[in-house]
Amino acid sequence: MSRPSTALRASDHQNDGRPHLLLACTGSVATIKIPLIIQALSKHDISMRLILSSSASQFLQGQSAEQPSISSLLEIPNLEAVYTDEDEWSQPWTRGADILHIELRRWADIMIIAPLSANSMAKMVAGMADSLVMSVVRAWDTTAILDARRPNLPSTLRTSTGKKPLLVAPAMNTAMWAHPVTHKQAAVLEQEWGVETGGWVRHIRPVEKELACGDTGGGAMREWKEIVSIIRQYLDVEATDNVASTKTK
């Protein structure tokens, strides 16, 4: 995959008038749904950027029509760039140089991690920052103080307490989802950090179905069309297809 042609500087996009959607995928087979999500959202006048964890990138290597190559994703309209961990420190850092995970946070009006793997859920709750995805999450403005509202954007791009929303759609094996530690982590996302309690995280809980591994039960990522509907509510855009609307919380 080719590197982004130019370094990202969030201030260069401050007044472009387009909502900025930062998407991310971590290590789950549900990563193969991200091309469908991006394609559906590309019909709107928004700007998108995608981060793939090292394990997530293994699911998009051109194996089949539903698993296109990462480079081919850049042919989708309004997808501006795709990043991997290697892009964080592609050159030795010097004083005054931009730091990618900070610029991505500043650039984004909203972020969604779909899928959020069991491993990444644990890292997120623990506050780890050992990858580009987790560094952006760790640096997220949880105070609504650092990142000012950009002009001419819908109010739905902020929570009721003025914070930029961070959506997560977990996907994992049924046994992983049923594990007691997962319940504790989900409680942090929903109760301590949840948008309904004044926080910034919207937890899009998984569903029950037969998983790719053959197990049947909870842990499957929410159906991709429903995820698109939820994102559209935050972007305050109308559906241009048959994806049903889901109320924003």
TrEMBL record:
Task: Give the protein's recorded name.
Answer: Flavo protein
Species for this entry: Aureobasidium pullulans
Q: Which InterPro entries match?
A: Flavin_trans-like, Flavoprotein
Among the entry's GO cellular component annotations, what is one? Answer: phosphopantothenoylcysteine decarboxylase complex
PANTHER family named in the record: HOMO-OLIGOMERIC FLAVIN CONTAINING CYS DECARBOXYLASE FAMILY, PHOSPHOPANTOTHENOYLCYSTEINE DECARBOXYLASE
**Is-annotated flag, keyword Chloroplast?**
no
Q: GO biological process annotations for this chain's record? A: coenzyme A biosynthetic process
Query: Which family does the record claim for this protein?
Result: Belongs to the HFCD (homooligomeric flavin containing Cys decarboxylase) superfamily.
Keyword Transit peptide tagged: no
What are the protein's GO molecular function terms?
Answer: FMN binding; phosphopantothenoylcysteine decarboxylase activity
Q: Which domain of life is it from?
A: Eukaryota
Q: Which Gene3D superfamilies match?
A: Flavin prenyltransferase-like
Where is the Flavoprotein domain positioned along the sequence? 20-233
Q: Which UniProt keywords apply?
A: Coenzyme A biosynthesis
